[in-house]
Amino acid sequence: MNLYPRRRRSRFVFTTLCLGLLFWFTNNIHAQPAPAETQDALAQNFLHPPDSAKPRVWWHWVNGNITQQGITADLEWMSRSGIGGMQMFDGDLGVPVFVDKPLLWMTPDWKAAWKHAAAEADRLHLEMSMAASGGWSESGGPWVKPGQAMKKYVWSETEVHGPQMYSGRLTAPPRNNGKFQDLVPVPDGTIPSVSGLPGARPQPPAPPSPELPDFYADTAVIAYRVPDQEIAMTDLHPKVTTSAGDLDASALMDGHFKDIFVLPLPPNRNEGWIEYAFAQRFRTSSVLIAAASTQKFGPRALPDGEVQASDDGQTWRTLVELPGPLESRSVNLSLRTYTYPETEAKFYRVLLKPPAGPRRPGLPHEIRLTELRFYSTPRVNDWEDKASFGTLYEDASTPTRDVPQNEVIRKTDVVDLTSKMSADGTLHWQVPEGRWRIVRFGYSLEGEVNHPATREATGFEVDKLSRADVTDYLNHYIDMISSMAGPYFGKSFRYFVMDSWEAGEENWTEAMFREFSERRGYDMRPYLPVLTGRIVGSAKESDAFLRDFRRTIADMLADNYYGNAAAMMKARGVGLYAEAMGTGLPTTGDGLMNKGQVTIPMGEFWTPPPDHSDNHYSDVKETSSAAHIYGKPLAATESFTTGPFVTPWGESPLYLKPLADENFARGINRIVIHTSVHQPFTDKEHRPGLTLGPWGQSYTRNITWATQAKAWNTYLARCSYLLQQGSYAADVAYFYGDGAPVTVPFWKPIRPALPAHYGYDWVNDDVLLHGATVRDGSLRLASGMQYRVLVIPDDVHSMSLALIMRIHSLVEAGMVLLSPRLEHASGLEGGPDADAKFQKIADELWGSGTEHALGRGRVYTGMEIESVLGKEGVLPDFSYDAPHNVGPEIPYAIPNGASPDDLVYLHRTTNDADIYFVATQKKHAFDVNVSFRVQGRVPELWHPDTGDLDAAMYSEQDGRTIVPIHMDPVGSVFVVFRRGAAPPAPLFAEAQPLAVLPEDWSVKFPMADGSPVQTHDTHLASWTESADPNVRYFSGSATYAQDVTVQPEWIRSGSHILLDLGVVREMAEVFVNGQQAGGVLWKPPFRTDITAALHAGTNHIEIRVTNLWPNRMIGDLQPGVAHTQTFTDYRPFRPDSPLMPSGLIGPVDLLSARTTAH
């Protein structure tokens, strides 16, 4: 075969460092490690990662489609593919029945299958875990009694006038299940099964679901004196008109939330209005707008629009914009009280548009409200969210305006009447003179159930704020699992798992009064009117009480739920993974504190469409920060989760790699892949198999690249192994506030900006108050983490008195603080003198100017973090020059990195090494000089994709080590600094073009239907360009073959022949003369050393190329296809869906490289 030379590629050979020294260094080709380098444990475990470093997978059992032979096949594939364990969930996703006999939750056959899985996990050395309930959220089951379920407080009001002796039965508060008062809950609905699937039988018809029982218990009765100015809107009998004409609007003013008012919208318009006209001017300062939620998951936000006022019904002025700024929007509640400056008007109007966001198909074009009320006396701004019926991004964004004292309730005018009410609700009370409102408080249920569980596993979500109820729930559940597991409990079965929170809000528990007084130091009863929106004492005092109320709920969630669960499991010999509490402020909690209570904190990140980035940064950083500040060695993530926005079965390892790398750089060191659905069948006819619909990777033994998956898993394991070593190196601790709910901000930029060249963590008040000290000018936590600077972001304006006192003492001991001057105490702890004490401490802390010394420490204000670190003499941990020798972008549609920087990094330290993970999110290759804050240690380049360990060229200057590095497109490398490193391995010099192989190849396509292998002689191009439908729609592995003549002089001593495949879609394996050369190639450059398998003369080269499933699935939908080759319960494609480029596209080159010594 004739070979012809190719023009030399323009690639660099030398890099000039700032010292003027000239070094050789690697370029794409990695030397094998010198023998001495492989003798130490760190290198050996990097090459061959231990089980503790291997990725885990979620393993979903869906709708009873379970077989023991399928279990064995699943787990054996996991074991041989380099997966370290599975986390099992049993759920109902509406999947039809495909197996002969579905196995239902906790039946004898189901238990036998579960124990078989535990036994097989033991045999295969896999770690087995299981969700903490049926479904995946959160912790509930049929054994949870109504009185143990999640609770909300409710109330009723009765107005009386004194003086008189009042004897009467108080109206009972609402006892229905739901989020707020008598608001009707949104039905969970069912997930419809896909019809028309071959071999499918519908799920057997379920009996009608019994209505969930309700529950009610009284908690307190109070009365307060009503301000003289208060007038009920309904007493003024406003005339109501709407954009849809005269409608019955009584539901909007009846004081109930169960009755729905429907405002139809015109077909051609997306806006309507409701107008209240009063006979006389009506003074108002707040409005309640309550929307009827229309979907369980998705936006529950209030409508968009405006609240307006007018004196003549013609000219309108805006009082409120709906739903308000992002930071002040309710996350998960569809009602809210808005306050505004006192206004008098005869006309009030609300303009309404449907809330933004996705809507369930088929919803009518209308606005659905349950209440629309204007108030004459002040209310607490957005008190519903502040009382934890919903959550806010920032409660400080919705402060309550100061109001005159004669319009608020004095604390001395709140009377506790609890002892005067009998069990049947009858109250006997001598009413003092004046107008009084009696409020009967109790609690009813949220009505939340675990989901998406099968009917047999579904029941109330347990009360997460009650230690007793959580303990009872877990004792029952753990006993069930341990009795099933037998000898495997604590052996192969090692963990329970809590997914991200999908259980709604909870704001009451039976022991709330006791918990509040013990945690906050005062009695909450005088402030109970605030829980109905009224202002007690002052606006500031009422907001502060609600802060303490939410903070108490958050503390109980951390202690009584997450901490209690982890302790109970530890006592039983197992642990707890938990996405505590999940993304997007799903409930009132402290994200860091929750994650810090569990054995292995988890976050999550998702797979975005091509050229987009994932937006789960904050949850991932919160997870790693929690691991660091609470002394947890592992930080895990639910990883690569997908939705309908990406191509099912369409993500290769190359597509996923930038997502893994950016989250490794955020501190994650255990990957848990979402998901590997259990496949009950073991034949080839049921591929790719069962799924979770659009959710997850469908990463199973039925993917086209199942036999090549070990290469990807090993990459993840090598990275995880090194990132599990030692401790995280950070210089900066960011405090994220002591309110509740509180999480690492995801909705806004951080000021001062997060440092690009220093490691940092987020910290909370818990770790600062408990065990924090100062050592050698650094803040040191009880976990051992140390930071040179504590940063309080610019938007934090308050904190508790206890915390500012603690920070004052830490600064006096030598800590450096960068912070704005804080304004006031955040709650009512500390008593009436708390603010005065707070201001005195603040004066001492901040002094005047931008820099202030206090004791041995310093306080900076209004500066950037890099400036402060520079003043403190802290050099950047990691920096780099502008990239050079920048190559072209690779022709792959993959996600963008969330960071705009050329490099992302993470630094960990051990007693013997500094380990830096360095990665790029860029789609082009480049060379870069990287400067590390390390001296006196020798750098080595450890490549997690190949396992190669290379010597590195370097120089030292001013206490730093400078290393030139070549970065492949979306490439990554570990720079490992150690003392007394082994002699350097040989380095490859520049790879020189040797020859281009002709584009004529013989290609064999195995047919999935069992027909003979088809052989095609073809040029290099995507299979999708072929006129043959068997090639155009092929999915699987095809083998290219060609004979190549090698000249004797090509393989002289010291020379290496490299085969470069150019563009490959998606993975390749190279065989030369029947011998595999290198491993699986799954990322650019698709290049391998074939020297050892070559000989002079004719050599037979085969390249096995594997693509993904979509093309074949689309091919099965083409007209006239009589025999389909794929099987699945999910049908995301159409006949005209775009095909994915596939195959060996090339060009295929031979390169020559010679080794060189230092």
TrEMBL record:
Keyword set, alphabetical order: Hydrolase, Signal
Keyword Zinc: no
Domain Glycosyl hydrolases family 2 sugar binding stretches: 997-1116
GO biological process entries: carbohydrate metabolic process
Signal peptide: 1-31
Family according to the record: Belongs to the glycosyl hydrolase 2 family.
Protein name: Glycoside hydrolase
Lineage: Bacteria, Pseudomonadati, Acidobacteriota, Terriglobia, Terriglobales
